[in-house]
Specification:
- The structure holds two protein chains of two kinds.
- Chain A is mainly α.
- Helix content of chain A is 61%, strand content 0%.
- By secondary structure, chain B is an all-alpha fold.
- In chain B, α19 packs antiparallel against α20.
- Classes of the chains: A mainly alpha, B mainly alpha.
Chain lengths: 99, 562
């Protein structure tokens, strides 16, 4: 690697990437919330609205589907928590400029 | 397009979504301490996240509405843009190119160009990419404003400023992580929004067979009456009638030149893989993305066909509709409030994600490849982190400006966008020759790229339109086939680019082998370490297994829908 990046990276503060939050929790939360709200809302769908959607009670089915997906994400988060950043020296030593 | 009947509940769904979009940016901010944290997510993300972001960065709303439009205009031949025109290139990127990109620790595609070739190639690539990204950001923004105006009645300027404000918030705060996390979330929401359209629409027209009958009865163009349900019908060389031209153009132009050019050299895509936490995850990024890519046509092309079946004279002149309206019109026709809010959230999120993907790759190339390489070298990392943030803001401001220009001169924007699309294929062929042939010289790479670009431009504007074979019915009186000219033009760029690269390389000085370590096949970098070290690989994490499974599914589906 050319020398010009070397200087930049020797002064580099430590990466904070390990502080990044778990996205699964957020997807799980949003879809669970949407699923519950949509399912409740679907109880108030008028027959005209169901007829509009080719006689499929779409809000109910979509609500249930989103709820299941949301719960699956939450379950995954629970079963496989984020592993703490591996203390893998090769990862860091490969930062640009160390060749 | 007509106004949607959005009610308080739909607005509630939108409000929650947009609040979360900003929250992601705020939460991701804590994870940024270095310029690489901001511009490459600190190379820390798991493969499922980068893989879904990889496909989501390409699943902007322009793509979704455009592919539904193609479905309505060309029928299921449109799957060529997915199956032959994307999946093989994605597999190639993961299995063949990624070890070089990720293994060499470059931070961008232009940086790879600089190390393998020279500064001239680097500048050509870096500047072209920067310009085309901010331009695309603006075009995305303008398209979003058009749709919001049509669907919910906001004035265009308000939609542009509000959407740009949200994108600014989440990528200036959260950097690439903010962009990628939002892309993954958007992926699930847009899928949740489109699946109801597909299910209701198919039931409404009486299933697959009902769809075929109704399309045959209602199609207004001979193309759709003949070829709506055949992917390879009418692609014979010499007497093609398929809307995408002959099989040579589809296979070599779309499937090889355009597709490999886009997926393997476009930094917006490659950046998602570079943000992965190790080489294995980087290799799997495009492979994981390939699986949704195989099935997304069901959510775009079939709604296009449903629109032909249920909306009278859809897309025909004088009907008051254009092909691009397919998905919004079906949303209006079929979706009750609630499901409508989800679909609208997905569509708006897809517009913003398209723009965010452009800006979050533009800032990386500008900061590292232009600012750090040519203007202010050797500053502490913190300086480049700040530059990255400022460039992000500047990119969005330029995007807003571009959006306003696009609203005045949309034809000019189309021309410029087409122009930039000529840059990918030549770059790809130069990369490939440079990867396998260590004799490929820096100037060979530069002139090969340049010659390829010129060749594509010449074919697009001078040869293609004046060649009777490129016109419907193979006579000049027929309408010129824009897709076919595009495919053949890209293929000509590959051929000319390859010849010039090889010829110039033979008469100019190659790089010494010591500078090619890790950049050329057969010259591994001894210092790179084993990227798989400390990583226990499970059987389903094998890149080869994933890649060949994806290709196998494509082959089976292609035979079913031949």
């Amino acid at each position: 690697m050319s020398s010009k990046q070397t200087v930049g990276s020797t002064d580099t503060p430590k990466s904070a990437a390990s502080k990044l939050f778990d996205l699964r929790l957020l997807i799980g939360g949003l879809f669970t919330f949407y699923g519950v709200v949509l399912t409740i809302y679907s109880f108030f769908d008028s027959p005209a609205e169901i007829a509009k959607a080719a006689n499929i009670h779409i809000n109910l089915w979509l609500g249930i589907g989103m709820l299941i997906l949301g719960l699956l994400f939450l379950l995954w988060t629970r079963l496989g928590p984020l592993t703490p950043p591996e203390a893998n020296p090769t990862d860091r030593s490969q930062a640009p400029g160390h060749h | 397009m007509t106004r949607l009947d959005v009610n308080f509940f739909d607005y509630g769904i939108l409000f929650v979504y947009f609040a979360l979009v900003v929250a992601i940016g705020l939460l991701a901010r804590r994870a940024i301490a270095t310029s690489e944290d901001f511009l490459l997510s600190g190379r820390s993300l798991p493969a499922w996240v980068t893989g879904l972001a990889f496909i989501s960065a390409n699943l902007g709303a322009i793509e979704i509405l455009g592919m539904a439009a193609n479905g309505a205009q060309y029928g299921i031949s449109t799957v060529h843009f997915y199956w032959i025109g994307a999946v093989p290139a994605m597999v190639f990127l993961g299995l063949v190119m990624m070890p070089f990109y990720y293994g060499s620790r470059v931070r961008s595609v232009p940086e790879f160009t600089r190390r393998r070739f020279n500064k001239q190639s680097h500048l050509l690539n870096g500047i072209a990419f920067s310009l085309s990204s901010v331009l695309s950001a603006g075009v995305n923004l303008y398209a979003l404003a058009l749709v919001i105006q049509a669907l919910v009645g906001w004035p265009k300027w308000l939609a542009i400023v509000v959407a740009a404000g949200f994108v600014l918030a989440y990528i200036t705060l959260g950097g690439l992580s903010g962009a990628i996390y939002n892309e993954v979330l958007q992926f699930f929401v847009i899928i949740a929004g489109l699946i109801p359209l597909l299910i209701i629409g198919l039931k409404g027209v009486g299933g697959w067979s009902g769809l075929k009958e109704k399309v045959a009865a209602n199609a207004t163009t001979p193309t759709m009456q003949q070829h709506a349900f055949s992917t390879w019908g009418g692609t014979g060389i010499g007497h093609w009638t398929n809307p995408l031209g002959d099989w040579l153009g589809i296979v070599m132009g779309l499937g090889f030149a355009l597709s490999f050019g886009y997926w393997t050299t476009n930094f917006t895509e490659v950046q998602r893989a570079l943000s992965a936490k190790n080489l294995s995850a980087a290799e799997r990024t495009p492979l994981i993305g390939a699986f949704p890519k195989i099935f997304i046509p069901a959510l775009t092309i079939i709604p296009g066909l449903i629109a032909i079946a249920v909306i009278p004279k859809f897309g025909a002149e004088g009907s008051g509709t254009t092909y691009n309206d397919a998905i919004p019109l079906l949303m209006k026709t079929y979706l009750p409030n609630g499901a409508l809010g989800i679909a609208l959230a997905g569509l708006l999120a897809a517009f913003m994600a398209g723009m965010a993907a452009n800006v979050s790759s533009f800032n990386t190339v500008f900061t590292y490849d232009i600012w750090q390489t040519y203007i202010k070298k050797n500053f502490p990392d913190h300086y480049y982190l700040n530059v990255g943030r400022l460039v992000t803001v500047a990119g969005i401001v330029i995007g807003i400006g571009t959006a306003f220009i696009a609203s005045q001169f949309s034809n000019i924007m189309n021309y410029i966008q087409t122009l930039f699309s000529f840059f990918n294929a030549p770059l790809f062929i130069v990369f490939i020759i440079g990867l396998v042939w260590k004799r490929t010289s820096p100037w060979g790479g530069f002139y090969g790229q340049l010659a390829g670009i010129i060749s594509a431009v010449v074919f697009q504007y001078f040869i293609g339109p004046n060649w009777s074979y490129m016109h419907a019915g193979q006579t000049m009186s027929g309408e010129a086939n824009a897709q076919m000219i595009n495919f053949y033009g890209a293929f000509s760029a590959i051929v000319v680019g390859a010849i010039v690269t090889v010829v110039v390389s033979l008469v100019t000085k190659p790089k010494p082998t010591s500078e090619l370590v890790g950049l050329v096949y057969g010259i591994p970098d001894p210092d790179a370490g084993d990227p798989h070290e400390g990583h226990v690989r499970k059987w389903y994490e094998s890149p080869k297994l994933l890649g060949f499974t994806a290709l196998g599914i494509v082959v089976v589906l292609s035979i079913i829908f031949i």
